[in-house]
Amino acid sequence: MGHVPYSALTLIGSTDLLRSYLNGVYRDKFGMAFIGEWRYMFLNKMKDMSKVGIVTWLGTGSIGNSFEDFQNWLPNGGVGFRYEVQPRMNVGVDFGIGKNSKGLYFNFSEAFYQLKRIQIF
């Protein structure tokens, strides 16, 4: 609240939150986002989990000068591919789609422990 430096404003639309929107475009004092993600690891010939999987997600988010300003919600969804390099370390490719926006991401991370994500467009 009050005077907030630009770099400290709430941000939605990044490699982590609402993938497909350019990083830094949507900023304001208040923000809220909801994302549901589903992951599936394929089985190998021995019926054990393989190192290959897929992911899909749906989400939405909004920002504003106050909570009352949450009127324009940004939709978001996408699909991705995961390959487990070692336990709890995945290499992935994600493609996200939003309102008049899309993005392709390469990431080297686990869902709750991020090492590096790169936005292509």
Overview of the structural elements:
This is Bacterial surface antigen (D15) domain-containing protein. It comes from Allotamlana fucoidanivorans. With 121 residues, the chain is mainly beta. The protein has one domain (6-119). It is 0% helix and 63% strand. It has no helices and eight strands. The protein is elongated. 19% of the residues are buried.
Range of helix content: under 10%
Placed side by side, the strands forming the largest sheet appear as 3-4-5-6-7-8
Secondary-structure-based class equals mainly beta
Give the strand tally: 8
Tell me the major beta sheet.
Answer: 6 strands, antiparallel
**Number of folding domains?**
1
Share of β-strand residues: over 45%
Instruction: Specify the number of helices.
Output: 0
State the low-pLDDT regions, or none: 112-116
General form: elongated
How big is the Rg?
A: 16 Å
What is the N-to-C succession of helices and strands?
EEEEEEEE
Mean pLDDT: 85
In short:
With 121 residues, the chain is mainly beta. It contains no helices and eight strands. Strand 7 (101-110) and strand 8 form a beta hairpin.
Itemize the secondary structure elements and their pairings:
Elements: E1 10-12, E2 26-28, E3 30-43, E4 49-64, E5 74-86, E6 89-98, E7 101-110, E8 113-119
Antiparallel strand pairs: 1-2, 3-4, 4-5, 5-6, 6-7, 7-8
Characteristics:
8 strands; 121 residues; six-stranded antiparallel beta sheet; Bacterial surface antigen (D15) domain-containing protein; two-stranded antiparallel ribbon; 63% strand
